[in-house]
């Protein structure tokens, strides 16, 4: 399990489904450098379902959740694409539900029929400078705040503090 702590994101395309597997501990340092990469990949590919597989996820922070919400919102609103999350870990599933992810994703606790497709590639990026990271963290939390009043109250102070630091 310690090998997974570094965190990585794998993407694979199979027929009309994209699978994104988050492995290890997925934190702001990984997601801020790749969110635009993932969106640009999705803009250039035809598919009708996104599966986010959290079966090997050890930890996931709120910034990562904000990026996942942003991706699901883009796919739903701009492309009419359904997104689902496979989350077999009760603590992560509870976190998803508490963040109102049921409004964007179909949350499954049992593995969907399609497991990680062959030919998965690791998505990587370079660590942006501190101002870009702060901006992306604000953006991710604003997306989470838009999902529910509870999220709005939960992240309002964080966003305000980060914005004052810009």
Structural write-up:
The chain is built from five helices and seven strands, in the order ββαββαβαββαα. By secondary structure, it is of the alpha/beta class. The protein has a single domain (2-126), classed as Transcription Regulator spoIIAA (2-Layer Sandwich), CATH 3.30.750. The N and C termini lie far apart (37 Å). β2 (17-26), α1 (28-43) and β3 (49-53) form a beta-alpha-beta unit. The protein is 46% helix and 22% strand. The protein is globular. Strands 1, 2, 3, 4, 5, 6 and 7 form a seven-stranded mixed beta sheet that branches.
Question: What would the keywords be for this entry?
Answer:
single chain; about 170 residues; alpha/beta; Transcription Regulator spoIIAA; 7-stranded mixed sheet; about 45% helix
In short:
This protein has five helices and seven strands. It has 166 residues and is of the alpha/beta class. The protein has one domain: STAS domain (Transcription Regulator spoIIAA, 2-Layer Sandwich), CATH 3.30.750.24.
- From the coordinates shown, what is the CATH architecture? 2-Layer Sandwich
Q: What's the CATH topology label?
A: Transcription Regulator spoIIAA
Within CATH, the superfamily carries the name: STAS domain
The ordered H/E elements are EEHEEHEHEEHH
User: Poorly predicted ranges (pLDDT <50, ≥5 residues)?
Assistant: none
> Structural class from helices and strands?
alpha/beta
